[in-house]
Amino acid sequence: MTAWPRLLGTYTILLAASGSLALSGCSGTKETMKQVGDNMGDAAQTAASGAQQAALAPAVNPVIDMLKEGRREIEAGNVDKANLTMARFKPLWERSSPVIEPLAGDKFPAIENAANTIIETFGDQQPDAGPASAAISGLLGPLSSLMGK
Fold it and tell me: Is residue 137 part of a domain?
C-alpha cells in the first residue's frame, strides 16, 4: 500500500510538468505538433489524390488510349487511319467529360479547350499531320498530368 501514494505523487508531478509546458507555450512542443499536423495533412492529401486518380481512371484512360493510338497512326504516316480513329473521339469525350470536370477542378477549362480543338481538327475534313498531332498532344499532356503520368 505504500507504493500507491508514491505512484500518485509521481503522477501529480508529471501532470503538473505537462500543464506548465502547455501553459508556457513550449515552442518545441508546438513545433512538433505542427510537424505532426503537416505530415497528417500530407498523408490525407496523398490519399485524396490517389482516390481522385482512381475515380478518374475509368473516364480518362480510354481517352488517353485513343489519343495515343491516333498519335501513333499520325507518326506512322497513316493520317487517314488516324482520322478514322479520332472520329470516335467526340462521343467518347461526351461520356467522359462529365466525370472529368468535377475532379479536374480549375484545370478543366484548359482540358475542355484542348478537347474542343481535337473535335474541330478532326471534324468534317481530314487534317494535315502537323495540326492533327498538335491537337492530340494538346489534350494528351493535360490528361496525362491529371492522372500523374
Answer: yes
pTM summary value: 0.66
The answer to whether position 131 is within a domain reads yes
Question: Comparing C-alpha atoms, which of 73, 69, 118, 68 is closest to residue 94?
Answer: 118
With respect to residue 122, please indicate whether it lies within any of the assigned structural domains: yes
Please tell me the total count of domains within the chain.
1
Distance, in Å, from the CA atom of 74 to the CA atom of 105, rounded to the nearest integer, reads 31
Residue 47 has pLDDT above 80, yes or no: no
Query: Domain of 75?
Result: 58-146
